[in-house]
Amino acid sequence: MTKGIKGKVVLITGGSTGIGAETARLLAERGAKVAIAARRKDRLDEVVADIASSGGTARSYALDVTDKSAVQSVVAAIIADFGRLDVLINNAGLMPIRPMAEVNTDEWDQMIDVNLKGTLYGIAAALPGFLEQGSGHIINLSSVAGIKVFAPGGTVYSGTKFAVSAISEGLRHEVGEKVRVTSIDADFSHLRQFRVIL
Ligand SMILES: NC(=O)C1=CN([C@@H]2O[C@H](COP(=O)(O)OP(=O)(O)OC[C@H]3O[C@@H](n4cnc5c(N)ncnc54)[C@H](OP(=O)(O)O)[C@@H]3O)[C@@H](O)[C@H]2O)C=CC1
Ligand SMILES: N[C@@H](C=O)C(=O)O
User: Fold this and answer.
1) Per the database record, which ranges form the Ketoreductase domain (predicted)?
2) DSSP-based three-state secondary structure for 133
């Protein structure tokens, strides 16, 4: 892959708010063609309008990352709309804070489905194309909670982020010669630092 983000097609999951939306604005400002995907289409469209008003290129795609075939369809739609995909940022994530003793299995399921399986579904949708084109970059949002267990309260969240970090490292070992793999161990202070990292 050539260096620099100008002209690259970047998919950001969870691009309707927070780090995802801010990253979309920044990358568009630097000349990337940005595809943002999340469940709330109205919020995505606000980000797209914002980017367009500053002269950038962006499109929105309604997506629930827990739906494997929907993730495949969005990647296919982006390739149809932009001609290719260069970078996938698996950013969609949830962090409900609750002690394990409350046994909220619904929240455990949600974190596993969005943070972990959503990331895997993104990889599944983008990786074959990246390998075929001989280039691509997968960026997974892990966390400091993926290095040190965030307990009490964030134990299951940490479990999902440890898994995201492990999968990123394993994927890098497996495909790193053709496809770049990055895991970002973000913490609360990283929203601003993203402007430096990217
Ligand atoms: N903010 C922080 O301090 C840190 C954040 N992180 C990680 O960074 C990532 C982004 O965090 P942050 O910006 O704070 O989070 P936000 O809560 O601001 O945004 C989360 C995004 O994920 C999307 N999302 C949630 N569920 C789904 C789903 N099922 N399908 C598609 N999109 C979904 C939301 O969009 P919608 O609801 O429209 O679907 C939203 O755009 C997460 O993975 C988080 O774990 C890591 C360390 C620190
Ligand atoms: N705030 C972070 C943990 O410290 C996170 O969202 O992962």
Assistant:
1) 8-194
2) helix
Interval 54-92: pLDDT, tens:
999 999 999 999 999 999 999 999 999 999 999 999 999
* Domain at 3-197: CATH code: 3.40.50.720
DSSP 31: T
User: Model confidence over 3-31: pLDDT tens digits?
Assistant: 689 999 999 999 999 999 999 999 999 99
Give the Å distance between the CA of 82 and the centre of ligand 2. Answer: 33
Q: Which residues line ligand 1 (CB under 6 A)?
A: 13-14, 16-20, 38-40, 43, 63-66, 91-95, 114, 141, 143, 186-188
Parse the chain into domains and list their residue ranges: 3-197
Percent of the chain with pLDDT over 70: 93
Q: Is 157 a catalytic residue?
A: yes
- DSSP lists the bridge partners of residue 182 as 139
For the sheet with 9-13, list strands across it: 57-62, 33-38, 9-13, 87-90, 137-143, 180-186
